[in-house]
Amino acid sequence: MHARTALWLGALLFISGAQAQNNPAPAATAPAPAAAVELQTVTVRGEQPGPALWEVRRGDHVLWIVGTLSPLPKHAEWQWTKLEEALGRSSELLEAPSARLKMPSSLFSRLALQPSAKLNPGGATLQRLLPPEMYARWLALRHQYLQDDDALEFMRPMIVAQQLYEKALAHDDLSNDVDVAAMVEKLARKHGNRVIAVRYELLVTRAPPSTSIDQDQQKGIACLDETMQLVEHDMPKLTQRANAWATGDMKALQNLMPQKNYEPCIVSAINGDFEKQLNIPDLPQRIESAWMSAAEAALIRNRQTVAVLSMEQLLSSDGYLAKLKARGYIVRAPDNTLL
Questions:
Q1: How far apart are CA 150 and CA 135, in angstroms?
Q2: Which of 39, 101, 189, 265 could cross-link with 236 by S-S, CB 3.0 to 4.6 Å?
Q3: For the chain, what is the domain count?
Q4: Is residue 150 a part of any domain in this protein?
Q5: pTM > 0.90
Q6: Looking at the domain assignment, is residue 167 inside a domain?
Q7: Averaged pLDDT score across all residues of the chain
Q8: What span is annotated as the signal peptide, if there is one (predicted)?
């Protein structure tokens, strides 16, 4: 299927029933300019050490885990020495965990044909929709990042939030398009590893209920406000976090990770919709359970295996590593310290 939406633990993949068998899917207050300049952090460029590896061991069977992150430095290149060594000793790669929704062809066709409106209903402008203080902040950020594009005034707040976020990342030499998981998979195939998909599958038989235009707009306004706050205050931290990942500074990365989830709210909004509308509030837990089962099975059948997880999944206090440790596995951080 062609439509994909990022989800908590990977990608939420939609496939029609007809395609499920034959075409599996592969594994989005006004700022103070002076302060922004003072806090500006230079994004690393050139060749960097690249992703670190966490070790999960039981006996002489090892699972090496690569932690992924977004956004990352746009112009950096990674050294893959440690990862290639691990892949060279391994027989399988576990893809990043994800969910896949299967649906009948008729339902998929109906949903795929629904228009994705970018403009506000009735020709409404952002000036009319946003509170005055929020609109003043928006004008300042529009001038700074979006070249005073008047066309944006007629677009839905959710669309504007996405464009602002992407332009702010580009301004700081960051990008959400650095697909580390795809790079790891390419290296795994180069080394002859079998790539194992780790997906929780759910059959959807009816379309989720639609939300009202007013609900969508209020959600979009809240998303735009959240995005503006991120751009106004948190871009230096995003850059520091990306640099820490790129240079292998795990101590700095660990200090930065728990404090804020920088996932764009447009992704969070979509996730929340599916969580509520499909009545599966425990979907992240179901995906996690599927990954834990796959990881433990790989640790039994292989002497060495490589896996891909997000940094949030790795480093959170109740994340995947914490749960593997609770199950009796020896877990080591990249600096060789026991967790």
A1: 14
A2: 39
A3: 1
A4: no
A5: no
A6: no
A7: 80
A8: 1-20
